[in-house]
Amino acid sequence: MKIVIAGGSGFLGRALQEYFAASSKKVILLNRSPRAANEVTWDGKNQGDWSDVIDGADVLINLAGKSVDCRYTEANKAAILSSRIDSTKALQQAVNRARHKPALWINASSATIYIHAETRQMNEYTGTIGDDFSMNVCKAWEAEFFKENQAGTRKVAIRTSIVLGNKGGAYPKLKGLTKAYLGGCQGNGRQMMSWIHISDFCRAIEHIIKDQEIDGPVNVTAPEPLSNKEFMRLMRQKHERPFGLSQNRLLLELGAIFLKTEAELLLKSRNVFPEKLLLQGFHFNYPGIVQALQAL
In CATH, what number is assigned to the domain containing residue 147? Predict the structure, then answer.
């Protein structure tokens, strides 16, 4: 099997590369700055020699897009949107040109597409999609992705939330805060945190590849979201910290300015349930946060 991963230099891309390479699958990464023999240069926008690797690929996975861990200035907001739309358009053009098109195209999306919800879980069928900058980016991204359909190419948009792993993402940062006795709740702590262990993330992608009945939007999150307050309590317990200072909304807003990020990333309630994966028989190795934290 030949798998092409666009934007594969990040935490998720590297994890997928290791996961699939372990089962002898051929993995090619499309990166802006290639560093290995299996990496090909692309700019995420224009056609080039990279387009040739799409021809004959069995699976195309697009993870490209500017990080949202930044201040939402007008320039950054434009870059966040354009990096997602442009890369998806460029890949669509390459797929259109390919003689042997991928049987499956998985495109990144985000659980942020759903509204702030503390008590109601959002699944793919009844979840409410809202209207603000982050949600509108996701809507435009998915609209661009699903705009064209080719016979023989199945399309899946993965709505992922926090992916917990030791080699990147949010977990090392949360671990550092906890060990520094800053592991209290963020804001009022009632916001829900949807998450998935990195191992289950990779396994879910493999499940989507194998199960040809899965298409459209798919929530790639564990089935047991929990409140920020409870998550941080369990983090303190794991890292043997008897207490952790909390940060209220005002403090987070001020801190975000100095850290050049947005408090929304911590304060939005993402209460997402993986209905489609479970209906299609996917089994989570780490359905609950306690097991996941023990494994990290």
Answer: 3.40.50.720
